[in-house]
Amino acid sequence: MTSWLQTSLFLSLFAKFFCSRDFFVPFGTENGDAAMFKNDDQFTRPIQIATLFPFFNRTFSFLIVSTNGLITFDNGVGSYNPSHFPLKEIVGITPFWNDINTNNGGDIFYREINDTLTLSLIASDIQNSFTGFNRFRPKWAFVATWFQVAQFQPSDGLLRNTFQAILTTNGVNSFAIFNYDRLAWSISTNIETYAQAGFNAGDGTTFYVLNGSFTPDILNVAMSSNIQKPGKWIFGTDLSEITDGICRNGGLITLDPYVVFYFGGEDILVSGPCFLPGVDTAKISINSEEEIDCGIIDFNKCKFTMKFVDKIGRVSIKLNLNEQQTFEGSILTKDESVIQEIRGLKTFYNSFENEEIRLEWNTNDFDLFDLYLIRLDNSKSSVVKLLRRNLTDNYVYLNSSELYSYSNESEYEYSYLALETKSQTRAINSPIRKFFTAKKFYIFNKLEYVSNEKCVDWHNKQPEPKSYIQALPPCWPSVPLATWSQVPHSFDNFVLDPACNPSKPNVCQEFHSGAFACYRSATSFKLNGYIVGQQCCYDSQNKLLVGPPGGGTLDMAHSSNVLEHFLSEVFPYFLCCKWSSNCDKYYDKRPSDNGDRWTPPRPAGGSGALHFTTFDGLSYTFNGFGEYTFLEIQEKNFTVQIRLAPLSSSNEKKPDGTVIKGIAIKGDIDIDSFQVELDANNKLFIYVNGELIELDEKEDQDISLNGINIRIPKTIDKIDLTYAIGVHFEIVFSNQKNAFLVYTTISQEFISKTRGLLGNFNKNKQDDFTLPNGTSVSLDPGLDRDVFSKFGQYWLTNEQSSIFVYDNNLTQKNYVDVNFLPRFMQDGVDFTDSTLALIAKEKCGNNSKCLFDISATKDVNIGQMTLDFDEKVEIFNQEIERIQSTMKRNDGSLKNSNNVLIFLTIYFIFAFISFLYVLSIFCRNK
Ligand SMILES: *[C@@H]1O[C@H](CO)[C@@H](O)[C@H](O)[C@H]1NC(C)=O
Ligand SMILES: *[C@@H]1O[C@H](CO)[C@@H](O)[C@H](O)[C@H]1NC(C)=O
Ligand SMILES: *[C@@H]1O[C@H](CO)[C@@H](O)[C@H](O)[C@H]1NC(C)=O
Ligand SMILES: *[C@@H]1O[C@H](CO)[C@@H](O)[C@H](O)[C@H]1NC(C)=O
Ligand SMILES: *[C@@H]1O[C@H](CO)[C@@H](O)[C@H](O)[C@H]1NC(C)=O
Ligand SMILES: *[C@@H]1O[C@H](CO)[C@@H](O)[C@H](O)[C@H]1NC(C)=O
Ligand SMILES: *[C@@H]1O[C@H](CO)[C@@H](O)[C@H](O)[C@H]1NC(C)=O
User: Fold this and answer.
1) Chain CA centroid to CA 710, Å
2) Which residue of 117, 298, 323, 537 is surrounded by the most CB atoms within 10 Å?
3) What is the pLDDT of residue 709?
4) pLDDT in tens, 228-260
């Protein structure tokens, strides 16, 4: 008996090492698995799992493994005879459901996986097969392995099946992986039904079964695949239907890496469509320019080398197959200044002919491999030249002639040194990934007499700047909402200048002496063929600096076009201000804005459940259920819509109120559209031009798109949106991340030009309840029953006017309930739960909006949002007052000093006359 058991144990170990396919996740007790006792028709106790597993729109916190080949989320399954999905009584998955009896042979193992190595194996399975998930990082996985399991009554002891099911999730998306070794039997003895493999939602209608289920062909699952790896199947399980990975993205492609340097050189993997036999050519066009080849490397991937693009931000990428089908996607380009990890390589500005240059770096900062020179000539085509290979020291000597050609008119040449380094290895088995890092440096002749001439020449050729500077939103006299020691990253339509800010005092000193921080126009502005922007610099007292040396300047080429900006702004700056004494000439054509035209923008928005404040300061409560026009600026073709919905998706009970769950913003065609939404399970989705953006939780993200700058901190608790046209949004999530507030400020330029729930901005509260047809209705804002039916509901959008992107076959109709009636605030705040009432009282004090929020949603955090919103508005208004008072003071002091001057002049004239008089008397007397 013992020896038989030992032999069988040995055989089973042996088999585990040599028979199961290499794509199985390591299993068995030696890998930390729990083993089920030998049994027939049993299942485990509910296993509490360390995550919430999303499955068919719902989430589950425990699971059960059944001997007969299932993992279920509600009840265990004892049934040995597979019943056809859909079934009401089962929620779960099955790689192979039939009558398994481990008393006759085989083992069933299972475990939760949280070790990084195994998770990274699972990650690469998903990354390699699911388009759009190239950066998928699972937080959790669970594996169950049916190892050499026998039938109920083996007629032949050697007929054994081995298969494995893996569940994994990153907390938002979830996947099931089925791994099959050779399957030897498809139907157990005693029963008449062949095995079934698939997924069942448990609602009696939603399910998915693998081909071959209920036929002898079920054995084919071990030889076929939905990801072209025989024996392996991967399914997306979080959505309302099971999804296959490949070729599912419709017209969209995914690019990896997604953020690259703008000067090109990186290899980019493209996935989306299948590159099956028959696809002969795959071509990429970058920013709609000429096509380059995309080399097909796998059935679901091709690869191209990124080219130089003179633009920081979103770059459109099109993939064309066989000159017939076109797929679209995008990539973000960045400048070196965004990269924090590059230190040690000194920027240098000058070199002379045949000079030896010693270039040093800090070996701790990067393990240097190859050194390249990337040169751009006047026509902006780039040449990549390998300078040194396999560098290991922390320095290199280069001759300036290697870097710079002194013949012809190459002074405008722009060069980069690029290092190709060995980067961290990623998942095991994946190749070492190359990546370009670079520190740019500029090489040109510093010849003062030439510079003088060149500066004068440049000055003569520049257009008059006045009309350009006046077309731009003005600089603020002082930066708002800042304890000046913590400069804000952005405000209104300005973002902190990466080159001059408190963390870079030296650069500030070099280019804007006296400045503490500078801000740049968030996005560019097109005028007469120029792409203009400007810079506003502030001193340590938070006062706007004007003129040289510290003042900000007009940019005739916005800084997002790096090369243009360099040639049009930076180089002339060197010619005029650094290499000759003509800085006044530079500022003559690139003046600072003095802030005179500035008028305070107005705040507005919506928060809690659900209170709105208009630009004119009217406050009202409106709990609609649907999608509404929030703000419309028709003159700019600018539309903002919000989605209002109950806090929790459960249909258990009629909700009392609604919260903000989505926002969509669309500008003119040259502005990228943007959408943020929390779905029914409070998963966050962000779309840009209809394309889903994946968020990095490791870094703050600063994304510059066409016409918008987006900032998302790594904590993902808020989103800052800055529009070039002078509109700013802050989307701030509740602590539970189940709703958000929208806070917006707009420029006074838009007076009398706005409509929607945020009212008609004209400094008159009385007409803020204006309907879409232009009729203004007179309502008491305190009577929210009237506000609901006589104003709010009129702003409901319809399928034609909606600018939201919908997924999963949903439409605008799925998000509207026209019959919904909220509880009205005018009927009083009503707590059925006395504990909640106490908590609410503590949180809100006497703030009735906050109390109402908590009573209507049963969630304290929603009340907190209202408090946060009101505080934001209050701080903003205080800041505006502070800024206005400094402006008045400046004017006042100027006047005073004039008065003093006049007084003194009169005094001196008088004194002089007196003096003459005295003198004359004196003389007369003499
Ligand atoms: C992984 O799981 C084991 C067993 O459940 C647990 O003891 C351990 O703390 C977990 N490790 C991490 C990093 O969560
Ligand atoms: C399943 O079978 C159907 C009908 O035979 C076929 O069209 C489909 O391609 C098969 N699916 C897979 C994944 O093999
Ligand atoms: C998933 O959620 C959507 C929207 O809430 C709903 O329409 C759909 O019926 C749900 N599907 C399942 C399988 O629960
Ligand atoms: C550089 O190093 C790589 C890897 O160590 C080696 O294969 C290659 O031959 C080396 N190249 C030169 C030029 O030494
Ligand atoms: C707004 O859109 C219309 C129609 O597409 C277009 O004719 C008009 O020029 C746009 N307005 C602006 C300010 O671009
Ligand atoms: C606008 O709509 C309201 C409500 O339907 C209606 O009472 C009013 O007469 C309309 N005004 C105009 C000018 O059509
Ligand atoms: C969407 O709906 C259409 C028709 O209603 C249907 O044919 C299609 O299969 C659905 N697609 C998805 C992904 O649900």
Assistant:
1) 8
2) 537
3) 86
4) 889 999 999 987 778 776 665 556 787 887 777
pLDDT at 438: 33
Q: What is the pLDDT of residue 354?
A: 58
Mean pLDDT of 102-123: 91
pLDDT-based confidence at residue 579 (cuts at 50, 70, 90): confident
Say how far apart CA 309 and CA 316 lie, in whole Å: 11
Is any ligand 3 atom within 6 A of the Cβ of residue 203?
yes
Ligand 1: residue whose CA is nearest its atom 1: 114
> What percentage of the chain carries pLDDT values higher than 70?
79
Among 346, 309, 353, 348, residue whose Cα is nearest residue 330: 309
Q: Is the minimum distance from the CB of 408 to ligand 7 under 6 angstroms?
A: no
Distance of alpha carbon 124 from alpha carbon 906, whole angstroms: 86
Structure tokens belonging to residue 662? 């989505």
**Domain segments of the chain: what residues?**
26-244, 254-334, 342-445, 451-589, 602-822
Answer CATH for 342-445 from 2.60.40.10, 2.60.40.1930, 3.40.1550.10, 1.10.260.40: 2.60.40.10
Q: Which ligand is nearest to the CA of 776?
A: 6
Q: Considering only CA atoms, which of 340, 202, 329 is closest in space to residue 253? A: 329
Range with the largest mean pLDDT of 100-104, 447-451, 627-631: 627-631
* Predicted pLDDT of residue 411: 42
Question: 21 C-alpha vs ligand 2 centroid, how far in Å?
Answer: 24
Half-sphere exposure of 178 (CA within 13 A, CB side): 30
* Within this chain, domains 254-334 and 342-445 share the same CATH topology: yes
Among candidate residues 103, 197, 217, the one with its CA nearest the CA of residue 153: 103
Taking the centre of ligand 5 as the mean of its atom positions, its distance from the CA of residue 803, in whole angstroms, is 16
Q: Is 471 in the pocket of ligand 6 (CB under 6 A)?
A: no
Q: What mean pLDDT comes out for the span 189-218?
A: 92
List C-alpha distances in Å: 278 to 18, 223, 324, 325: 37, 23, 12, 13
Q: Is 771 in the pocket of ligand 6 (CB under 6 A)?
A: yes
Instruction: Specify the pTM.
Output: 0.65
Q: Range with the lowest mean pLDDT among 65-79, 214-228, 484-498, 868-882?
A: 484-498
Q: What are phi and psi of 278, to 5 degrees?
A: 110, -25
Calculate how far, in angstroms, residue 206's C-alpha sits from the geometric centre of ligand 7: 13
pLDDT of res. 91? 96
809 lines ligand 7 (CB under 6 A): yes
Phi, psi of 627 (to 5 degrees): -115, 130
The reply to whether ligand 2 has any atom less than 6 angstroms from the CB of 226 is yes
Q: In this predicted model, what pLDDT tens digit does every residue of 140-175 receive, in sequence order?
A: 999 999 999 999 886 666 789 999 999 999 877 899
Provide the CA 239 distance to its chain's centre, in angstroms: 21
- Atom 12 (ligand 3) nearest CA: 240
User: From the CA of 111, which ligand is nearest?
Assistant: 1
Protein residue with its CA nearest to atom 11 in ligand 3 = 240
Instruction: Report yes or no: 219 and 183 within 8 Å, Cβ to Cβ.
Output: yes
H/E segment holding residue 325: strand 325-334
CA distances to 251, 394, 655, 872, 881 from 885, rounded to whole Å, are 54, 55, 47, 20, 6
| Kind and range of the H or E run holding 92 | strand 92-97
Say yes or no to pLDDT of 433 above 80: no
Q: Helix crossing, 834-844 with 860-925: angle to 10°?
A: 10
Distance separating the N- and C-terminal Cα atoms of the chain:
147
Calculate the CA dihedral of residues 787, 788, 790, 792 and round it to 10 degrees.
Answer: 90
Q: Which of 66-80, 565-579, 891-905 has the lowest mean pLDDT?
A: 891-905
**Rounded to an integer, what distance in angstroms lies between the CA atom of residue 663 and that of residue 182?**
50
- pLDDT tens digits along 859-881: 999 999 999 999 999 999 999 99
Question: Taking the domain 254-334, which CATH number applies?
Answer: 2.60.40.10
